[in-house]
Amino acid sequence: MLILVSVLASCDETDPQVAYDSTPYALNFGAFLPPDLPADNIPTVTGVQLGRMLFYEKRLSQDNSQSCASCHKQIDGFSDERKFSLGVKGLEGRRQAMPLFNLAWHKFGFFWDGRAATLREQALRPIQDTLEMNESLVNVIAKLKQDQLYKDQFIRAFGDDNITAERIGLAIEQFEITLISNRSKYDDFLAGKVLLTESEERGRVLFFSEFDPNTGAKGGECFHCHVGDNFSMHTYLNNGLDSEARFTDLGRYEITLNEEQRARFKLPSLRNVALTAPYMHDGRFQTLEEVIEHYNTGVFYSGTLDESMDHNLLPDGLQLSEQDKADLIAFLKTLTDLEFVKDERYSEPN
User: Fold this and answer.
1) Is 298 domain-assigned?
2) What are the tens digits of pLDDT across the range 256-282?
3) Sign of the C-alpha dihedral, residues 177, 133, 110, 142?
4) Which pairing describes strands 265-266 and 236-237: parallel, antiparallel, or unpaired?
């Protein structure tokens, strides 16, 4: 009888909401080709919710003042409006914070130099970076273990309340996989729902056209590198920001020590580019006008310059007129996804 009473009492105290739940998270790829999701970490509703909580959790930092979202703001396409993000000690990072969206389609590593092979690895590095959140994973785990809300959510996501660094990385990876941006005006244009303005259409044609100095054919040469649904090759390129003598950041070379990759950096997506200023790995350009002018007349030669930049090096560059440049920018703005930056599924949880 005592055993039965004990069992019944135990059942009465159990919160029915705190149980492992493997319900898959519904990902909307839209017209995109489905990505290769990590087979060992398919997003679930409970895992994504845990990752979202952790993405906005300031206790991941040394002084409990910063979260991942502090430097990756949704309204800015999950990027940072500052040239270099400030860490908990007020120190600047080395490079501009990259925007976070459509990460499930990214290949060849993460960060500007690709030093993280997976999203789960990428998620843990800023926590431990002395210039960023400057915290140890041991301390983070200890903080989260004191919070019943997190213990319960780890049960829902992983089956028990064992909080580990690996699981923190997996949960944030799941949340970041859901950050899908595919609802821009350009997407609606491709679906036949809207028309582009005259300027946007001229910019679109320029974007996808080659410049031929022999025939005078106009072209922005943009499509060679910014290709596919995400407008990116997701590889590492030197886009002529500096001559070899002026290299101050060797980018991918620092990871591979391959001389051919000196000053090569990960090629970011152009989606939401109007929201993600400043631009380039060092945030040197504040406006899209500056970016276009760089490719028009400002490309420097170096031994690792990408071969697609040949035309940009001509004495007169791409010879884009002021109208051409304005049209290109008009087209780039059609890649803005306002629904994405307002989507409550990606915002800070209540």
Assistant:
1) yes
2) 999 999 999 999 999 999 999 999 999
3) negative
4) antiparallel
